[in-house]
Design brief:
By secondary structure, the chain is an alpha+beta fold. It has 12 helices and 9 strands. Helix 4 (159-173) packs antiparallel against helix 5 (179-196) and helix 9 packs parallel to helix 12 (309-320).
């Protein structure tokens, strides 16, 4: 799937009130959400919009004269698919009220809002900004948690803010041949930069990567009996790409798939060596730890422990005599 421009529009010769109404319709359509326009600007109104799609990401570059609008709690409650929008400001500025806080944003700033809360905005001078809009489900749990803990206007001194700003602008300026692959890369970068912008006092003692690894390891340990446990499932549940998952575990001596198998084998060995599991057949133990194929289990078990499951059970029984 290629990146494609869904619409390129500018008010051009449309007059005042008609231009403003057309602009509101175009912006709502591009964002995929409803909001209420404020008072219609008096006099001429100029605006433009370029909307392109990269996989599941909408990229919206817009310009507009001073105007205002708002979204109520009712609008937020009626959203079918919650979304997150990252904004990079190139020119002009606006006031934003979001989540009970008031922000003033201008050229060089980065702001993140989501569709879950009521919002008000007022463009106070001609504005030029770029937005990356994406379903909230595509961001990792950690990134969404970070957004709920930090100011939505990123700290100007943050290196992650600088990188995120450049990412948003680069995505707007460039077209991509393989949108599916590129959208995963963009999402990985967004997750990393949002988490990197989290204030230091909220990072606690562990690094971001270590916290993510611990969360995923807990998930793996809890779901070892599930035969469908896989790299794809883990990535989907944690709202990260498979590539990012492999990156998190890049220092391990084995792959994530191999790690799952080794943990399952260790569980089987414990049960085979324990009198508690003595009444269970070997196949039952293998199935209980997520192995769907007994032949495959037996081969992997012998390769790992240099003995068969039966030999492990016999040796354990002899040692207890």
């Amino acid at each position: 799937m290629n990146c494609f421009v869904r619409e390129s529009w500018e008010s051009g010769g449309i007059r005042g009130e008609d231009a403003y109404e057309a602009w509101v319709d175009k912006l709502m359509s591009a964002q995929g959400s409803d909001w209420c326009p404020g008072k219609t600007p008096s006099g001429p109104f100029s605006a433009s919009l370029r909307h392109k799609v990269i996989g599941n990401i909408n990229v919206i570059e817009s310009r507009c004269d001073p105007c205002s609008g708002y979204r109520t709690e009712r609008h937020a409650d009626n959203i079918e698919e919650p979304s997150v929008i990252l904004l990079s400001y190139l020119e002009g500025g606006e006031h934003i009220e979001f989540g009970g806080e008031r922000y003033t944003v201008a050229a060089g700033d980065t702001f993140v809002w989501d569709s879950s809360k009521a919002t008000q905005f007022e463009v106070y001078e001609p504005l030029h900004k770029v937005a990356l809009a994406m379903p909230s489900r595509l961001l990792s749990h950690n990134a969404l948690s970070a957004l709920n803990q930090m100011p939505r206007k990123f700290d100007p001194s943050s290196g992650s803010r600088f990188l995120l700003n450049n990412l948003i602008r680069a995505v707007a300026d460039r077209d991509f041949d393989d949108a599916e692959v590129e959208s995963e890369t963009i999402l990985d970068a967004v997750n990393a930069f949002v988490l990197g912008a989290l204030p230091a006092d909220l990072h606690h003692d562990k690094s971001l990567r270590e916290r993510q690894r611990c969360e995923i390891m807990r998930y793996i340990d809890q779901h070892l009996p599930d035969p469908t446990l896989s790299v794809s499932q883990i990535a989907s549940v944690h709202r990260i790409s498979k590539r990012y998952l492999h990156w998190l575990f890049r220092d391990e001596s084995v792959t994530v798939n191999e790690l799952i198998i080794l943990k399952r084998l260790a569980g089987c060995q414990r049960d085979l060596s324990s009198p508690v599991g003595g009444h269970l057949q070997i196949g039952q133990i293998a199935y209980a730890w997520g192995f769907a194929n007994i032949s495959h289990f037996s081969k992997r078990y012998r390769a790992q422990y240099q003995e068969s499951p039966t030999e492990t059970r016999q040796r354990a029984a002899e040692e207890m005599v």
